[in-house]
Amino acid sequence: MTPLLEVAGLSQRFGGLQALTDFSFQLPERELAGLIGPNGAGKTTVFNIVSGFYKPTAGGIVFDGRRINGLKPHQITALGMARTFQNIRLWNDLTVLDNLRLAHYHRLGYGFWSAVLRAPRYRRAERDIETHARDVLAMMKLTDCANELPKNLPYGLQRRVELARALASKPRLLLLDEPAAGLNSADVDELIRLIAWIHGEFKLTIWMIEHQMKVVMALCRHLTVVDFGRVIAAGAPEEIRNHPQVIKAYLGDEAV
Amino acid sequence: MDFFLQQCVNALQWGSFYALIALGYTLVYGVLRLINFAHGDVFMVGAYLAFFISTGLLAPEGLFGFSRELTLMLTIPLTMIFTSLVGVTLERVAYRPLMRKGAHRLYVVITALMCGLVLENGNLALLGASRRTLPELVDKTIYNIGGIAVTSLKLWVVLTAILVFIALHFIVTRTRMGMAMRAVSWDKFALPLMGIPLDRVIVFTFALGSAIAGLGGLLFAMSYPVLEPYMGAMTGWKAFIAAVVGGIGEIRGAFVGGFLLAFVEVMVVAFLPSTFRDLFAFSILLFILWQRPTGIFGKPLTTKI
Amino acid sequence: MRRYTLNILFCAAAVALVWLAQAEMLDGYVLNILMLIGINCIFAVSLNLVNGYMGEFSCGHGGFMCVGAYAGALISVAFFADSALFGEALFAPWLAPWLFPVILLGGMAAAALAGLIVALPSFRTRDDYLAIITIAANYIIISIIENIDAIGGPRGFSGMKRTVNAMADVIELPWMLMWTLAGVFVCVLVIRRLMSSTYGKGVSAVCQNEVAAEMMGVNTNRVKIMAFMASSGLAGLAGVLYAHIYGYVNAQSFGLLKSTEGLVMVYLGGMGSISGVLMAAVAFTLLIEVLRFVIPWLNETLHAVNLLPAGYQLDQIWTWVFIPLMLILLMQFRPEGFLGNRELSDVFPRLRRWITLK
Question: Would you call A102 and C202 a contact, using CB atoms and an 8 Å cutoff?
Fold first, then answer.
């Protein structure tokens, strides 16, 4: 079976900085994989390249059998990839519901004139979008804050809204950039359950960056470890946990 | 060929004016990341100050009845000092309170634009529409170098621009204050570590930029002795274009951009109707900002997630 | 039905105004001011799309109004006037009321295309740099028009009164007032509908977090093109109306000062608030008119009590000291304007019962 996402030989330079070197990875459909590594190792760079925000210096990305190098981020989203961000990026002055509505932007099905003239096509599309957005809100237990502004919500809820927004775009692949960052222990447990549930319910493929071992070990079936922009280990969580190079990367030379 | 060289001399003179004004934009931008749109009008104020100071000092109508040489010697520092006061006042009254409040950058930009309008129209409202003429402070000697006429004034203008460049280079690389200015442009928060208060650096920057603009105003008024309130608007815009072309925030950029723009303009006027000059200048600006917003010397910026 | 109260009120007020004008109970001066208010409303509300909703800083909006004014004027003259430029009139005068919408649309289309001058650079440039691009665009537009001698160059262009008169010859009505009122209505409707649709909310998304917008499937470049073209197109509408009301256009009257007027109205009213900007447009237009009388009065009074030197006269240029000063103070003390980014209906939720947003 061909993998849903295939990354081969990815490299990225920023000026004199080699942020990523020869990164290769395959993500089969329905997998839940993790990308870990120390701070500044290049994890977010990988996500930024895969989601089209950076153009890689070298390497190829194939998503769902299609080469997506050089596509714009919004085109990649339209192909069925969605992501969340390390530091939450919601539209803070639009309501939560509007945030989810906007996730449908890549398949609105109407344009400027339909919107201004309130054409039947516009009415139909907006009705469908609204229904779907409310469905996702209900599933994510966010119905109560549909009309709140995200900036007025507590941090944990903001994270959940961001997740809901990503889901609302009906992705096949979900990239999560440190979903547990800044959450307290109880929230983390809740998040683990939530991600596991989403993974099954929406029949998704998920690739996540995460620092907290608890989350990674509970969820991921495959891990990739990067350090200084290079893959230093890959495999099942149990193998990774005892991999000498991984321990070295996290704890320094003395620990080995 | 003679015609071409003659035009080049003119371009050098205009380039000097542009460079002198562009420095003010560049210095302030380097320190505050603020485009001080009122700067062109500070230049205009400088020219008017030069007018009032020199007519006040000069014989026979002036209060003091000084000779022309003495008047010029006194007008230069006085114009620079008073113009820098205007610049510093702008910073104190209009920009600083906004910056303190952490207002959005655009609010400061709007304020700067509006301060420019207040200066222009305030001048017109107070002094009326009558045009003023600066008294002749130096004799116009015309040198003839290989068939090209060069007035002594033109030489002085170009020479001053070069001297200012050297002086500024010295200030920025050798003095404590100059190094502090460079430090601010890198990291505002590290500055107190150097033992220099941020506000003092900002005031110094505005004073320096405005003083140079005042000098430019004086030289401009001597070269083109008819003053009017809107003279700073267009010249200021051109100087700003020069600063952007060279890469705003870069001192060399201001000079290279100034001479480059002046050259293009002079050539446009030489071969096309003069009404095309502004069109070309602004089209260049648009194009540069579109394709290479950081100018010739600036380094490109990247967004981070 | 109750939700349509505001729309009905507007229509009723419009009908009343037209009737008053028809019965010649409004003198020409009042009529002109009313139309000027309408033009300023369109101008400010359209600028609000870019400066308010999209959070960009366009200071060259006057340029697009200029394009609209000239394009509308040219089409108008070509249609209904015998001119050296276009030769004989293309259409019989009785067609004027029917073809005036074509003139309006033509002006809007031309202005919308001119909006591309700013829209394309906005892909890569933001904030103060984009502000400069808009100013440059304003100068470039004016400079181009002044360099085309066929349309009058620096002397300006006229002849549109023929169209206005032709309309009046068909039926004696205050045509320009009616077109202006219709223009305001359409402009507000377009912006309102746009910004309440998911499509239009892409503009807010770009404003609030451009990276998230692009990553979540919003084609930010297309949003910017749409916003700039819609905004400048509506400014073009204001321009065509202006050209026909005054019967004469000159590129110089659409310079940086015109654009500044727009900025004052938008920031006075509150960025991203249609009702706020409408109120500001009315207040601002009236203020300028009031100053027209106050300044000479102040001049006489101050001379009478010997507070001003005899040789010095206060003149109208003080308006243009006063207005920038007002904006400076606004930026210092209430940068969010009358209403911030809220609508009247957000401030007074009860109003919602009377208003439909559709």
Answer: yes
Please say whether the dihedral angle defined by the alpha carbons of residues B167, B170, B175 and B180, taken in this order, is positive or negative: positive
Q: Which of A98, A102, A122 sits opposite C216 (nearest CB)?
A: A102
Joined tokens for residue B151 = 């007035």
Q: Is A14 on the interface with B (CB under 8 A)?
A: yes
DSSP H or E stretch at residue C301 = helix C274-304
Sign of CA dihedral C223, C228, C234, C240: negative
pLDDT level of residue B131 (50, 70, 90 thresholds):
confident
Which DSSP state fits C123?
Answer: G
Q: Which amino acid is at C239?
A: G
Q: Return the structure tokens found at A123.
A: 């009415």
Contact status, residue A122 vs residue A114, Cβ threshold 8 Å: yes
Here the tokens at position C273 are 């608030």
DSSP, collapsed to helix, strand or coil, labels residue A252 as: coil
Domain count, chain B: 1
Instruction: Tell me, yes or no, whether B114 lies in a domain.
Output: yes
**Tokens 């451009």, residue located:** C210
Exposure of C91 in the CB half-sphere (CA atoms within 13 A): 20
DSSP code string of C216-257: TT--HHHHHHHHHHHHHHHHHHHHHHHHHHHSEE-GGGGSHH
A86 touching B, CB under 8 A?
A: yes
Helix %, strand %, coil % of chain A (to 5):
45, 25, 35
Q: Do A94 and C230 touch (CB under 8 A)?
A: no
Quote the tokens at residue B136.
Answer: 């002749």
Q: Could you give the residue range(s) of every CATH 3.40.50.300 domain in chain A?
A: 1-80+171-256
* Homologous superfamily of A1-80+171-256: P-loop containing nucleotide triphosphate hydrolases (3.40.50.300)
- Encode pLDDT of C191-250 as tens digits: 999 999 999 999 999 999 988 999 998 999 999 999 999 999 999 999 999 999 999 999
Top-level class of domain C7-256: mainly alpha
Shortest Cα distance, chain C CAs vs residue B112, angstroms: 8
| Packing angle of the helix pair C220-246, C61-80 (nearest 10 deg) | 50
Contact criterion met (CB < 8 Å) for A14 and B302: yes
Amino acid at A84: T
Q: Do the domain assignments include residue B268?
A: yes
Domain around B20: 2-130+145-291
Which chain C residues touch B117 with a CB distance below 8 Å? 257, 260, 320-321, 323-324
Whichever domain contains B209, its CATH number is 1.10.3470
Element (H, E) at B246: helix B231-246
How far is residue C355 from each of residues A117, B53, C5, measured CA to CA in Å? 19, 63, 6
Residue contact C212–A89, C-beta within 8 A: yes
In chain C, which residue's Cα lies nearest the Cα of A99? C205
Question: pLDDT tens digit string along C67-101?
Answer: 999 999 999 999 998 888 888 888 888 888 899 99
Q: Which positions ≥6 away from A182 have C-beta within 8 Å?
A: A155, A159
Look-up: residue for tokens 């509408």?
A: C237
Comparison of pLDDT for C357 and B32, the residue scoring more: B32
Rg over alpha carbons for chain C, rounded to the nearest Å, is 21
Give CA–CA dist C245/C192, Å, rounded. Answer: 26
Residue from C355, C335, C331, C332 nearest C343 by CA: C355
pTM of the model: 0.89
Report the complex ipTM: 0.89
Which of the residues C134, C138, C139, C211 would you substitute to probe the B interface, choosing the one with the greatest number of B C-beta atoms within 10 Å? C139
- The residue ranges of every structural domain in chain C are 7-256
Contact C147 B275 (CB under 8 A): yes
Cβ A93–C208 below 8 Å, yes or no? yes
Residue B68 in any domain: the answer is: yes
Chain A residue with CA closest to B299: the answer is A15
Residue B301 lies in a domain: no
Nearest to C240 by CA among C182, C312, C280: C182
